[in-house]
Design goal:
Methylamine Dehydrogenase, Chain H, 388 residues, globular, mainly beta, single chain, five-stranded antiparallel sheet
Length: 388
């Protein structure tokens, strides 16, 4: 089984069992602080939304990174497990996996439901929006793997465009692949995964049509060669940057033993004009991670930083087509991280089981923001909307 996906299911189960107050601020700890960095001097704010089983919490971000509730928060009687956002709307996958809800975002960050969309079929999640903010994609990973495409109408409703299957390499009964992620050119998207029983690593390529619908193109295999000829790298998670690069978390597995023989490492890839991937990463230059497993990965809007979360999180320098390089030590090792979000002012929002932490991160420093961490029990997803 895919260790990353398998552990994520366990983490999500733990999150559903966690109980606590609606929103509680707890003191920050010195353990999480690195070298101090300057806060953004901009007066602009961001809005941060966290989903829970019965509501969504919405926060406005002050210039020092401190969070305060937006008007009307928490927004009750909303039950969504995964979220995505563009400049006008927040979309949430219903816990029933039968609806994708649309919420308009007011100028003060307040939410109002404007649509309850019924997807063409069962949606396992997560959901994702392309770089233009005009098309939404969901994943149907019930018995087979399909990506469904929807045009986002002006009023926030979703118009079904079609669906495309993933390559049959993915055995959905064994492991679900990641959701597709677009590179910044917005022409190609990728998903990855590895059936650890059969040891069939795969990275799938999809092309975005002019209508916004994605079409499966091919399974591309450009992983680095392991140190031993009898081994194979299994890819667990990927993240894309604002241009044409990907980061992929891989682990060396022995084919004969069916066992991992090394730590999870980070490879960098570059997509050409046809979406084909190449890499300069090798087993000698790929940095390993200390999170034990990988639930989630994200590259900053600047494309210079990569954060990886599992049991704790680490930030790495992402160098485009060049190999990834180390930055921070393992942080918050006792927390299990679910998702990350970034705003346009170098702030990282790290959601773990029951806790949201806010950091200002630059290529030379990471500092926990004023008021962080925040206790948010039963949280499942976080999204960030930066100002226009």
């Amino acid at each position: 089984m895919n260790r990353g996906c398998k552990t994520f299911g366990f983490v999500a189960f733990l999150a559903l069992l966690t109980a606590g107050p609606a929103f509680t601020q707890t003191p920050s700890t010195e353990e999480t602080r690195e070298t101090a960095g300057a806060e953004s001097s901009s007066s602009s704010v961001a809005y941060v939304y966290v989903s829970r089983p019965t509501h969504i919490d919405g926060f406005v971000v002050a210039t020092d990174g401190k969070l305060t509730p937006v008007p009307g928060s928490p927004f009750p009687d909303i039950s969504v497990s995964h979220m995505s956002v563009n400049k006008k709307y927040l979309f949430g996958l219903g816990d029933d996996h039968q609806h994708i809800y649309t919420f308009s975002i007011a100028s003060n960050g307040a939410l109002k439901q404007v649509a309850a969309n019924v997807p063409d079929s069962f949606v396992s999640g997560p959901i994702n929006i392309d770089f233009t903010g005009s098309t939404l994609y969901d994943a149907n990973m019930d018995s087979d793997s399909f990506i469904q495409s929807y045009k986002i109408e002006e009023n926030g409703t979703l118009q079904f465009l079609g669906e495309t299957p993933s390559d049959s390499t993915f055995d959905i009964q064994e492991v679900a692949p990641t959701m597709i992620n677009f590179i910044g050119t917005n022409q190609y998207a990728y998903q990855t995964g590895c059936d650890e029983d059969a040891l069939n690593p795969a990275t799938e390529k999809f092309k975005r049509e002019p209508s916004g619908e994605v079409k499966f193109v091919s399974g591309v295999f450009a992983l680095p060669k392991p140190p031993d000829s009898g081994d194979v790298y299994c890819p667990y998670q990927l993240a894309t940057d604002p241009t044409d690069h990907l980061a992929v978390a891989v682990q060396d597995w022995n084919e004969n033993e069916g066992e991992p023989v090394g730590l999870i490492a980070l490879a960098a890839f570059t997509a050409d004009s046809d979406g084909n991937l190449t890499t300069h990463s090798t087993y000698e230059n790929m940095p390993s991670i200390d999170t034990g497993y990988v639930n989630t990965m994200s590259i900053s809007p600047t494309g210079k930083l990569l954060v990886v979360g599992g049991a704790g999180f680490q930030v790495f320098h992402f160098n485009g087509s060049n190999p990834v390089t180390s930055f921070t030590r393992l942080l918050q090792a006792n927390d299990q991280f679910l998702e990350f979000g970034w705003d346009s002012h170098n702030r990282l929002y790290a959601l773990s089981v029951g806790t949201l932490r806010v950091y200002t991160v630059t290529p030379t420093s990471i500092t926990e923001a004023s008021g962080s961490p925040y206790s948010i029990p039963e949280a499942s997803s976080v999204v960030v909307l930066s100002p226009q």
